[in-house]
Amino acid sequence: MDTDILLSMTGIDKRFAGIPALSAASFTVARGEVHALIGQNGAGKSTLIKVLTGYHRRDAGEVTFDGKPFEVSSPQQAQANGISTIYQEINLVPYRSLTENICLGREKRRFGLLDWASMHREAENLLQRFNIRADVRRPLMEFNTATQQMVAIARAIGFSAKLVIMDEPTSSLDEREVGVLFNVIRQLKQDGVSVVFVSHKLDELYAVCDRVTIMRDGRTVKTARMDDIEKIDLVSSMLGRSMEKTEGHATAFTARDEKNIGKVLLSADNLAVGQIVQDVSFTIRSGEIAGFAGLLGAGRTETARLVFGIDRLKAGAMTYGDKRFEPRRPSDAIAAGMGFCTEDRKSEGIVPDMSVAENMMLALMPKLAKSGVIDEKAQQEIVKRFIRQLGIKCSGPDQKVRELSGGNQQKVLLGRWLAMNPRLLILDEPTRGIDVGAKGEIQSLIKSLADQGLAVLMISSELEEVIEGADRVFVLRDGISVAEFGRAAATEDALMGAMAHGNAPVVAEARI
Amino acid sequence: MTGTSPMTRTTARRFDPFDFLARYGTLIALLLLILFNLVFTRNFATIQTLNVNLTQVCTIVIVAVGMTLVIATGGIDLSVGSLMAISGALAPMIFLGKIMPIGNIYLAVAAAMLVSIAVAGLFGLFNGWLISAFRIQPIVATLVLFIAGRGIAQVMTNGNLQTFRVPQFQFIGLGRVLGIPVQVILMLLIVLAAAWMLKRTVFGRQIIAIGGNERAAELSGIAVARVKLLVYAISGLCAGLAGLVVIAINSSSDANLVGLGMELDAIAAVAVGGTLLSGGKATIIGTLIGAMTIQLVRYTLLANGVPDAAALVVKAGIIILAVWIQQQGRAHA
């Protein structure tokens, strides 16, 4: 295979505002090969792809494609030169016909007019290669996601692509549709077209890919044939763990006293919504830190959204306290004493132009008000108390929250929920994008809150954070809660095993 | 991680002219205009000039207050002009007894005012319902009544001009209290109430939060749909009142003309006043100053012999300048 290399990228460097996103990354794809590209959030997959397609300009390194140096400055140019990308969110024109979408940008003309007959024929032929028979005159929006994806692929092939990059193509497809897509990929492979396949679902990689390249921290850490690599190695390479145990403490979490843990507060049974959460069950007790571990796309955030009433359950049930819990919107969950610090602080957490005080009081405000009028004095007191308690570094309650560092913004959001005096706090990646010092502070804060009886559901992609922080760890894999570990049993090996295979022994739940 | 974050220190240390202009630019412009007029325009420093300018700006300000709240949530309300036409058409029908005769004129006027303002409010509620229940873009949702509203007003009146002489009603457009025109008092009351509401009440804070980050607001338990519903209803109420003031001044109501182009005047006042058109930052007092600045520019040009057509071009220039300064201030902040 190595004799016939289609694409080779070597020594690729890319920095954003001085921070390296790619360092000495290298990536080779053979002709007619399906090559998986995997890595955690922020590992550099999308940056690598964007450098390849000319969306970003690389700082250093070489790219050769089809035997020639490859220099493009836009995705359009890359497409014209044989590299097509199919994005997760399909970027086609919903209101135009299949033909128009497939032929957009390379319309056929006859006597200066568009030659519709031949364009329709070509579109039909392209789709037929994937066993799709559809009226190519109908607008794209009338077709399901899978067909739309096929149209995107047909469009790529129509541009006589030699390399097709698919960015998480299966995330919105059901099982049957995934099967169709895989057949298309195999068809492409037979025709000598190479495919770069980005996905987080390990089983899919084994089903369709020949080789895999694993990225971590902007580097390409490993390339291997799929036949030669175990799932557990994929997981450990992505997470940057060797199978030997690393000793010592990596987080500010310290051992907890079992005495602090009370009765079951929330129990969730067989939750499901769409493809991304299929069957998730877990319980959280008062005073307990329950951890959610899993790869990207395992359904952890989506499960939290169900608990908080942002999305509605399709199946399953929850019990909270002693009652059945059916939140229809976030305010229901808040009224029940829950708080949710989302993963994406910028788009779902802070209101950037509001002050620290206003942000912190956003949820509590109605309770503090006297017939709708804000009690400014009471608010200021609470805000000042939390600024002190949480150690928020700001010039005062009136500073705009967007001027704060990530760690301090996170503390403001913690304050927003703590001010409500909650019973259950959901923390989604509470320390992502936060500098080391603030990270430790937030971790010790979480522990001391749990010691005071708060139930915490902590989602984290950092293994040491869930291992050292959580009293119990639930491992999610492809939308299913596959394993549960107590504090003693939650080792890196055990968690990675469950993430990779999903069949680790379920440890008996220790109820108190 | 000691002391304040680096961002704070920069803003505290360095003076940013754009930030300053974005904050106080309109006020400075207004003061400069007044100064210019004091020097160059004859008879400027008279109560009469003040009253002329204030009465002309009143209806714009009243509508613009509602518009400010709508824009603060990140929306827009194009229907205000048409809602003015509806309330302006409905009120005379009631107090002239065309719908049903009411013996007492005071009762008739009160009923006319309450009903027509309430109807405009209900239409505003309809806007809010389209926007929050069906997630239709505000510009599209309010376009419905922008177009249909004036049609409704014309159908109600058969397209006829309604003229009247009812001093009890026209008090709101022609009357004076302590020498101050009644509509100026109305305007000031509305401005003060709205400014207080935006700053001091939970509702006001929620409006700003929704415009600043709707997702975050929703996740904080704010009833986003309800707040939007109310905001559009308030905008409708303001438009309804403004419609009454206009017909009271004119002693007549023409469904083709009442509130024509008002939506754009109001949006211009909001923009020039310093409210972010993308939402999340709003100032009612700014809107008042914005409306007065636009008014005074027009007056200055007219009083100094520049034709009205040219004044319109200057008005457009001011709006562009104001928005540009805002964006610069934001980019630099």
From TrEMBL, chain A:
Tell me the compartments it is located in.
Cell membrane
The record's annotation in SUPFAM superfamilies points to: P-loop containing nucleoside triphosphate hydrolases
Residue ranges annotated for the ABC transporter domain, each copy included: 7-242, 256-503
**Major location (coarse):** membrane
State the annotated membrane topology for this chain.
Answer: Peripheral membrane protein
One Pfam family recorded for the sequence:
ABC_tran
Q: Name one GO molecular function term.
A: ATP hydrolysis activity
Which key words tag this protein in UniProt?
A: ATP-binding, Cell membrane, Membrane, Nucleotide-binding, Repeat, Sugar transport, Translocase, Transport
**InterPro entries noted in UniProt:** AAA+_ATPase, ABC_carbohydrate_import_ATPase, ABC_transporter-like_ATP-bd, ABC_transporter-like_CS, P-loop_NTPase
Gene Ontology CC, one term:
plasma membrane
What family, per the record?
Answer: Belongs to the ABC transporter superfamily.
Q: What is this protein called?
A: Sugar ABC transporter ATP-binding protein
From TrEMBL, chain B:
Pfam families from the UniProt entry: BPD_transp_2
Care to name a GO molecular-function term for this sequence? Answer: transmembrane transporter activity
Membrane spanning segments where? 21-40, 52-71, 78-99, 105-126, 138-157, 177-198, 229-249, 309-325
Primary place of residence?
Answer: membrane
Q: Which InterPro entries match?
A: ABC_transp_permease
Topology in the lipid bilayer: Multi-pass membrane protein
The keyword Cell membrane is annotated on this UniProt entry: yes
Q: Which keywords accompany this UniProt record?
A: Cell membrane, Membrane, Transmembrane, Transmembrane helix
Q: Where does the UniProt annotation locate this protein? A: Cell membrane
Cell membrane as a keyword of this entry, yes or no, is: yes
Q: What GO CC terms are in its UniProt record?
A: plasma membrane
What is the protein's name according to its record?
Sugar ABC transporter permease
Species of the source: Phyllobacterium myrsinacearum
